[in-house]
Specification:
Elements (H helix, E strand, L loop, with lengths): L1 H12 L1 H14 L1 H4 L6 H13 L5 H4 L6 H25 L4 H10 L8 H7 L4 H27 L7 H25 L3 H25 L4 H5 L3 H27 L4 H12 L3 H11 L2 H9 L1 H18 L1 H15 L1
């Protein structure tokens, strides 16, 4: 187990570089890894379960007194960004409906579970982050297919019921199971089973990224100005997700911890879930915009939290000093 723990720590430290490497490996060896696509939903369900062991239903109550940051973040995630992505994609690629679908899909999937790691490392509001992840995850079986149906249903056939079944299997059921176990064990499972599953969860993430990237291989190998334009669009839109969320936190006059939680959760996306849906329900053109986001996400969030930490340095010190005085 010591080897696995060291592996887990290594992957966490180098995650911004690991995921792009997995993407490249999947593209270069698409014929080898593509045959394992059938196991991806099961891997993803396991990852969701492992990630949910650290939180219980009690965490939802912690933000009940001030639900506005959660609601505003959900608005950015599932209203503002999908509409912005849809408008931008239609303006730039009007004759490419599958690219439009992929760009929209990239920005309708729920926030990334790994956002909790970044918020924890940089001393943000973990309770708010857990609440956003839990609420967003539990609502995703309805929000994802509904948003796709509303925005692109008339252009591309959307199997809403099939997506609902997949999201329930990959996200909702394992998340609920993890939360129930956390509740039943009064949080002890977070100290016992969760650390043991963490390395396998990282292995699952590596496998999912590698396998899912195989379908985008034909497009990357034949990269052209159009695909570069799609990639640049994803990068631009993904960057603005963090900016809009940060601006929203400033409008709420949130403290540093809440600002960090809103910014990270509003910008990150569960790309693996989006890739699974793209792989199972759409042609390869849809997979490209979704998977290309893997190249940017971890690098974007790493730079965002570093910039935010530097920018908010004085406010952090002031809030810390204030808290210290109040404790005396």
């Amino acid at each position: 187990m010591k080897v696995l723990y060291k592996f887990n720590g290594f992957i966490e430290r180098w995650m911004p570089f690991v995921t792009p490497i997995c993407l490249v490996i999947g593209i270069l060896f698409s014929s080898v890894f593509g045959r394992f696509a059938v196991i991806v939903p099961f891997l993803f369900a396991f990852m969701t379960f492992a990630g949910s062991l650290g939180s219980g239903f009690g965490d939802m109550k912690k933000i009940a007194a001030n639900p506005l940051p959660l609601l505003v973040t959900l608005f950015v995630l599932h209203a503002w960004m999908p509409i912005l992505a849809f408008g931008t994609a239609n303006f730039l690629f009007p004759s490419h409906p599958y690219f439009i679908t992929g760009i929209v899909l990239e920005f309708v999937v729920p926030t990334g579970v790994v956002s909790l790691v970044w918020v924890s490392i940089y001393k943000g509001n973990e309770a708010l982050t857990i609440s956003i992840i839990l609420v967003d995850t539990l609502l995703s079986p309805l929000l994802v297919p509904l948003t796709l149906k509303l925005l692109i249903g008339s252009t591309v056939a959307v199997d809403a019921m099939g997506m609902i079944k997949d999201i329930v299997f990959m996200i909702a059921v394992p998340a609920l199971l993890g939360m129930i176990l956390h509740q039943v064990t009064k949080g002890e499972i977070k100290k016992t089973l969760s650390p043991k599953l963490a390395p396998f969860s990282k292995i699952g993430l590596i496998a999912v990224v590698t396998i899912n990237s195989t379908k985008v291989a034909p497009f990357v190998k034949e990269m052209n100005p159009l695909l570069l334009a799609v990639a640049a669009t994803i990068l631009l839109l993904a960057s603005t997700g963090y900016i809009w969320s940060w601006l929203a936190s400033r409008l709420l006059k949130a403290d540093y911890g809440t600002t960090l939680a809103m910014t990270v959760n509003g910008g990150m996306r569960n790309i693996s879930a989006g890739a699974v849906l793209a792989l199972r329900y759409f042609p390869g053109e849809v997979m490209f915009p979704v998977m290309i986001g893997t190249l940017f996400q971890q690098i974007l969030v790493a730079n965002t939290v570093n910039i935010l930490r530097r920018r908010e340095g004085k406010r952090i010190a002031k809030e810390t000093t204030g808290a210290g005085k109040s404790d005396e």
